[in-house]
Amino acid sequence: MARRVPAYRSHQSGQARVTIPQPDGTRHTVYLGPFGSAESKARYAQIIAALSRGEPPPAAKAPAAASSVGRSVNEVILAYWQHAEVYYAGPGGKPTAELNHIKTALRFVRVLYGDSAAADFGPVKLAVVRAAMVERGWCRPLVNRRVDRVRRCFKWAVSQELVPGDRYEALRALPGLRRGKTAAPEPDPVGPADPGAVAATLPHLSRVVRGMAEAQRWAGMRPQDVCNLRPIDLDRSGPVWVYTPPAHKTAHRGQRRVIHLGPKAQAVLAPFLATCADPSAYLFTPAAAVAEFHAGRGAARKTPRWPSHLDRNRSKRKADPKAAPGGHFSTGNYSRAIAAGIAKANERRAKMAAGGEFDPVPAWAPNQLRHLRGTEVRKAFGLEAAQVLLGHARADVTQVYAERDFALAAKVAAETG
């Protein structure tokens, strides 16, 4: 009689579980992670595959001696995380975005194989981890980058003699996902923002966020650069201002980032600089945006503020709110503020259309302002000028940010081809 396959079931805690019969007649329940998640389904498939091969599943294996098994995957991940918290910290020990990417990538490894021996983690198990990432719906390049972060963890573990020396080379044997050869979707190419869409969005942004967008648009800065802008980092002694961010994307490679600000960018920054009393403070802050929002809403009131209303509002206001405005914008908050402005612009257009058809404002993100500036500079001054302005060490990187002038190509073909 065929052996019954243990079912994938839910638990009242929200976890997925599978109950495995043991050789001694008992039953052992293994919790797999959130019910319905890709991680839990992948771990369930791993256990069923082991049972079908006649092997004891990972949770049912008897613990072997430490000398033969060595460290578990969880122990290696924990050791690497302690290293990463220091190595990938920014100025002042502030966590960088890379730490979040590492945590996300290693979470799949921990859920699927955390209890297994790190010395047994090879290309087949890494492929299972990758399949779980694909099932999550991530695009192909993102999956490849996060699989590389898993390899990087084991590369470090080899350097610390936490796992056998052949583990990293074995993991490198698994090739990356290739275009057209995988179920993982391809990402949409990131192009420059539509100037018309930017112009239509600006009136619907707060003064602070609008200033950030306009400064970034004319200087070709990265979103991180405009979020971290401080007067102390600006040299305003010459006709062209020079902004030297203390922290930037390629600082760990010893590269210096210098951003030149012309008259248009200077005109945007001047009002903010005039009201910034502390040169070491961030120029654009969520606190200022929130204060201006409340001031504007108060100025638009049509009824007076009666003392009783003020007393009631004062009693309801929290002395120590949990979500107080931060000291400066994160790139995520900045991007969400832009998206909110685009939504408001479309709401306005829909209202003006009175239920009829209207042309919505196309979505765009802050990083596309950098693409837009690179495209404009390349078209007017050439590739080398765009490369210098954007701060790229290699021209092929600039090709990604500055769209090719296809109109020029078409003109040449029409006249000479």
UniProtKB/TrEMBL annotation:
Q: Which UniProt keywords apply?
A: DNA recombination
GO:BP terms for this protein?
Answer: DNA integration; DNA recombination
Listed Basic and acidic residues bias regions: 308-321
Organism's domain of life?
Answer: Bacteria
- Signal peptide segment: none
Is S-adenosyl-L-methionine there in the keyword field?
no
What GO MF terms are annotated? DNA binding
Record flagged with keyword Cell membrane: no
Q: Where is this region: Disordered?
A: 1-25, 297-330
Protein name as annotated: Site-specific integrase
Tell me what organism the protein belongs to. Limnoglobus roseus
Write the lineage as a comma-separated list. Answer: Bacteria, Pseudomonadati, Planctomycetota, Planctomycetia, Gemmatales
